[in-house]
Design brief:
Blueprint lengths: L2 H8 L4 H6 L1 H8 L14 H11 L2 H13 L10 E9 L5 E10 L7 E5 L3 E5 L6 E4 L2 E5 L5 E7 L5 E9 L2 E3 L1 H4 L4 E11 L3 E5 L2 E5 L3 E9 L3 E7 L1 E5 L4 E7 L3 H5 L15 E8 L6 E8 H4 L8 H75 L1 H6 L1 H41 L1 H31 L3 H18 L2 H16 L20 H34 L7 H15 L1 H7 L4 H11 L6 H68 L2 H13 L4 H24 L1 H27 L1 H99 L12 E9 L11
Parallel strand pairs: 1-19
Antiparallel strand pairs: 1-2, 2-7, 3-6, 4-7, 5-6, 8-9, 8-10, 10-17, 11-12, 13-16, 13-18, 14-17, 15-16, 18-19
């Protein structure tokens, strides 16, 4: 597989997030699947039970239709299809469990074997009978399917708890009926199944992948309906809420909420809120289904990703080996060209010597021809010099024989050289094609490295910074949530409420009691003082009124009114007593009466005692109030810490991303990747690079081929001329001898010699022209080889830079991808497969016969909640 295709497969955040959401998308996005809510409509017992528990049959039918509309069913080819009905109260507590089983008689058998642990078994759709032995059932089917039902007491694999809230406070469903306000209903689901599967050679516990879908039919008066993990459908006639959850799936897969994003969720509960008048809920039910029964798992195959990773590893290794081989090949080419350059220098020197010798030879032949012609015109003078001519002719014959042998060696060498040059010319097209491919590759590599360098220099974009800041802030908020947030609040509260030692722990006294902080002591003392001071007057007035009221038989009134009434009483009954009390103030009068009634303490002592008792009674309340104040301060400080931490974390995350990109940029520049690729590109595509040298190189090779072909084309002529020269020299020698023997014969021979010399002179221009062409072609070969040698050195340097870069890319890029896959992704996909296997193992709630396959679904029917016409709204 090519690298771009693998990147496309792995680019999602992160592949862990995608695989974590596979079951959620499969179960919710495409539907979970459900069969008829009431199993077979002919099951009268189940229908009656449902009607008596959940309200009107129409409401139940409506919610069943909604649930079936929201899901779809894969092909179900199980031998036994089981529907479990759990009749529950409004809180989700199961009161009765009814099971309906459908035995499919695929082969139209007369008898069907089954297993069941149900009680009160009865046929609900026919009159077929059965016999039972322990859990084994044998039905007299007569070729038909069997539908039967029974009751069970086993706990279901998924339990649900329903909690109701009114205006933020929990309330029972009975008390909620007919009420108005802000209502919240929460469904919590618990998966109690446990299967042991082997994951990566280790035993791990996973749960069956159950999905729960809950539907509610709401009464009139529901507005502003909001659903967490679900949706609401509101019409003029009714309001229906549908919610879903996948209990136990996150624990089985070993993932956290932070591993998922907003597009993928694995909920454990469903929650609905609404503004309600006169609350009622005519119908509510929940489907719980096994995902493996309703979603096909045939298409989930984690081996494809293994093959992709192996292909990537092999391709990377081949690319690294290829770049190394290329570097070695360019070294060999450079060495070979240097050797060829040296040999061509020797060859060019020999060609120059040959050209010079041929010039000397042709000049001599011309001179000879002139002399022979003079000889022919002066036969008389020739006769006198015949002796000398005979001697010279012998030497000429010997030299021509030597020349013939030398030319033969030369032409053989020229033929071999021409064959080699033509082979070089035939491969020049391959060389040009290879250089063209190399040019494109180095250009693309240089552009990619330059773009990477610019991206690293530019740092994160604004959108990337925003995403980094959002992620960092969310991580901080998560750290302040749940148990961690509670720990922060507790730490801040302890620092305010108690005295801390040098290590930050709560200090204790010698009796082991926690020491109060200065803040707590100050707040408490101020609160006690203020409370006591404000109550002294109230306690005093209350005590005086109580005494006066007692003295007047329980009559209530102000102290003035009571004093006047008492004075009137004594004025009419006892003038002596009146004389004593008529000038008393109300407080003196109260003290007098109090003493007259036999009190052991003065009224002021009683008031003081009441004040002290009041202070002691208020002390615990004040302490609780001060604790509450400190807790409030701790919560506000925690909130402020969270806000500051979010800002600091967001800023630090962006700074860290920029520093990371700068570090990578500095590293690749320090390692010479950018400059090395640029130098490689310059050596191939630059002004003096390999590509620029190719036209000159190919032209030189072409000229070399043409010159060598011309040289070889003259070989036969040159050999023929040498042979003719040798023959003429022999004839000349024989003629001179004959000339000496016979003048007439000598005259005739001279005539022939003159003709032969003229023939030799006629070939002189052609021989010299071939020698010049050979010399020019040789010089062009030498020049082309020089340019090829320079280009090969540049190519070799670029190939070595490429090989080094591939080693770095393999170590820092490909190996990190392999480590990430083998470290995180592959074990996770194996867990996913284990969950799927656990789902396929769970086939029945009651029991199933050996060799049979089964599917099971659970339908929870909650009791309806009816509005109360005369309830307080």
């Amino acid at each position: 597989m090519k690298l771009p295709e693998l990147k496309e497969k792995l680019k999602s955040k992160y592949i862990v997030r995608v695989v974590a959401g596979v079951l959620t998308i499969a179960l919710v996005g495409t539907g979970i699947g459900a069969t008829a809510v009431f199993a077979e409509k002919n099951s009268t017992a189940v229908t009656a039970e449902a009607d008596s528990t959940t309200g009107s049959s129409k409401d139940a039918d409506d919610i069943a239709d909604k649930l079936m509309d929201s899901v779809s069913l894969k092909d179900n080819d199980a031998d036994k299809d089981e529907s479990v009905y759990l009749i529950s109260d409004a809180n989700g507590n199961v009161n009765k469990t009814i099971v309906v089983d459908h035995l499919k008689n695929k082969d139209k058998k007369d008898t069907l074997e089954d297993a069941s642990n149900l009680s009160d078994i009865e046929n609900v759709k026919g009159k077929e009978k059965f016999t039972q032995s322990g859990d084994k059932l044998t039905w007299q089917a007569g070729g038909k399917d069997i539908y039967y039902q029974g009751t069970a007491t086993e706990e279901p694999p998924v339990t649900q708890k329903v909690t109701y809230y009114l205006d933020g406070k929990e309330i029972s469903p009975e008390d909620l009926a007919g009420k108005s306000g802000k209502v919240k209903i929460r469904f919590d689901y618990t998966n109690t199944t446990s299967y042991t599967e082997t994951v990566n050679g280790e035993k791990q516990t996973v749960s069956v992948p159950f999905a729960a879908i809950t539907g509610l039919v709401l009464g009139d008066g529901f507005e502003n309906i909001e659903v967490t993990n679900g949706k609401a459908e509101v019409s003029d006639s009714s309001s229906v809420v549908l919610g879903y959850a996948l209990p136990g799936l996150k624990n089985s897969l070993g993932i956290k909420d932070k591993d998922l994003d907003g597009d993928v969720n694995i909920p454990e509960y469903m929650e609905m809120t609404a503004d309600v008048k006169n609350f009622s809920m005519p119908a509510a039910m929940t489907f719980v289904v096994n995902a493996s029964d309703y979603v096909s798992t045939d298409g989930i195959d984690t081996s494809d990703l293994d093959d992709m990773i192996n292909d990537l590893k092999d391709a990377s290794t081949q690319l690294q080996d290829g770049s190394k081989t290329l570097a070695e090949g360019t070294d060999t080419l450079s060495d070979g060209l240097s050797t060829l350059q040296s040999k061509l220098g020797t060859f060019a020197s020999g060609v120059g010597t040959l050209q010079s010798g041929l010039k000397t030879y042709t000049d001599g032949v011309s001179t000879l021809s002139g002399g022979l012609n003079t000889l022919g015109n002066s036969t008389g003078a020739l006769v006198s010099g015949a002796d000398k001519l005979n001697s010279g002719a012998g030497q000429l014959a010997s030299g021509s024989a030597t020349l013939k042998d030398g030319l033969k060696s030369y032409t053989d060498g020229a033929s071999q050289l021409s064959a080699g040059i033509n082979e070089l010319g035939s491969k020049s097209g391959t060389l040009v094609s290879g250089v063209s491919k190399l040019s494109k590759g180095t250009s693309a590599l240089n552009a990619g490295v330059q773009e990477l360098d610019k991206t690293l220099q530019a740092g994160p974009t604004n959108d990337q910074k925003t995403e980094i800041q959002s992620t960092a802030a969310k991580n901080v908020r998560d750290s302040f949530a749940g148990e961690q947030g509670e720990a922060v609040n507790t730490s801040i509260y302890n620092s305010l409420r108690y005295e801390l030692d040098n290590e930050g722990n709560v200090a204790v006294d010698e009796n082991g009691n926690k020491k109060d902080s200065l803040l707590y002591t100050t707040l408490k003392a101020g609160a006690v003082y203020n409370n006591s001071y404000m109550n002294i007057g109230n306690i005093y007035n209350s005590t005086v009124k109580k005494v006066l009221s007692t003295a007047l038989g329980g009559k209530e009134g102000t102290s003035e009114e009571l004093s006047n009434a008492l004075k009137q009483f004594y004025q009419t009954s006892n003038q002596t007593v009146y004389g004593v009390i008529k000038n008393m103030s109300p407080s003196q009068l109260a003290e007098f009466l109090y003493a007259q009634n036999g009190a052991q303490k003065t009224i002021f002592e009683t008031i003081e005692e009441n004040i002290n008792n009041g202070i002691r009674a208020a002390d615990s309340q004040v302490s609780a109030g001060v604790d509450s104040t400190i807790k409030t301060m701790a919560e506000k400080l925690s909130g402020a810490c969270e806000q500051v931490s979010e800002t600091v974390a967001a800023t630090a995350a962006v700074s860290g991303a920029s520093e990371t990109m700068n570090s990578i940029h500095a590293k690749i520049n320090a390692q010479g990747l950018v400059s090395g690729v640029a130098e490689l590109n310059e050596g191939v595509n630059g002004e003096n690079g390999l590509v620029a040298s190719m036209p000159t190189l190919t032209s030189g090779i072409k000229q070399l081929v043409d010159g060598s072909n011309t040289l070889v084309a003259n070989n036969d002529t040159l050999n023929a001329g040498a042979t003719a020269l040798n023959a003429g020299a022999s004839q000349l020698s024989a003629g001179t001898q004959s000339l000496m023997n016979s003048v007439p014969a000598l005259t005739s021979g001279i005539k022939q010699l003159v003709d032969g010399s003229n023939t030799l002179v006629a070939n002189n221009a052609q021989l010299n022209s071939g020698a010049s062409q050979l010399a020019d072609g040789t010089n062009q070969i030498v020049s082309g080889v020089d340019q090829l040698t320079t280009g090969s050195k540049t190519l070799s340097e670029g190939a070595h830079t490429l090989a080094d870069g591939m080693v770095q890319f393999n170590e820092e890029g490909i190996n990190k991808i392999l480590d990430a896959y083998n470290g995180d992704l592959k074990p996770f996909t194996d867990k996913l497969q284990a969950v799927i296997d656990a789902g396929e193992e769970y086939q029945t709630y009651s029991a199933i016969a050996d060799g049979q396959t089964g599917s099971v679904k659970f339908i929870y029917k909650l009791a309806s909640i009816d509005a109360k016409a005369d309830s307080d709204k």
